[in-house]
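Exercise 3.2. Students should predict the tertiary structure of the chain below and write it as structure tokens, then compare their answer with the key that follows.

Predict this chain's 3D structure.
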Amino acid sequence: MTFAIQPFWRDRMKKRKTRKQTKPQVPETFAHQPFLILDKLYRRAVAAPKPVETRTDTPPQKSENDIFREAMKEVREIRAFREIAVQKRPLSVSLKRGNARDEGLNELEGIVSGERSIRLSDTQEYVEWVNPVYSRELIRELHRGRFAVQDCIDLHGFTLTEAVNALQDFLAVARQRGFRCVKIIHGRGLRSPQGPVLKNAVISVLSSRYRKRVIGFATARKNDGGLGALYVLLR
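Answer key:
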């Protein structure tokens, strides 16, 4: 038995055959593709903008010698000033023999006769002491009489023990009354075979036992006892 194909179905079958023939063929893909990631990285690197190069290196600093040479490169030597003649003048100092000796004798004769006064600070009997906290210039002003004497004690005729006790009582009363400057007459001890005993005792008491209460002391002026008395400046 034979069947006759209608023209409609014949045309439709022809179209299907033509579609199968014109369909694009997909290439066969592989599971292992090692260069696919590398290709993507390369394309990204090419498309990305290039970073601006910044120089981090700094120019080398010039040394002192280089700076000096650069500053002195235009300096030229003046040969005329290489050697400058200096004329040495002879010393014309005439020393007269006997002048210093004569002046010393004249000054000594004036002191003995009373025409000239001698400075007490130049003698060996001069006394001066100051607490380290204060200035020595303050004690020199004390010796010049710049502080008014507010009280005085005379130790002549006392024994050593009596003089020390009397001095301690005198200083205690002076502190209670708020005195700042007092005078202590101790004598020079010229007639004593042991020397100035009272003077040394007074200095010892003031500079050791009472040093925290004393600013300083110095020999009095000539018209106020001189080498036989002390000005004492109390705190």
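Discussion points: The chain is about 40% helix and 10% strand. Strands lie at 128-130, 151-154, 181-185, 214-219, 229-234.
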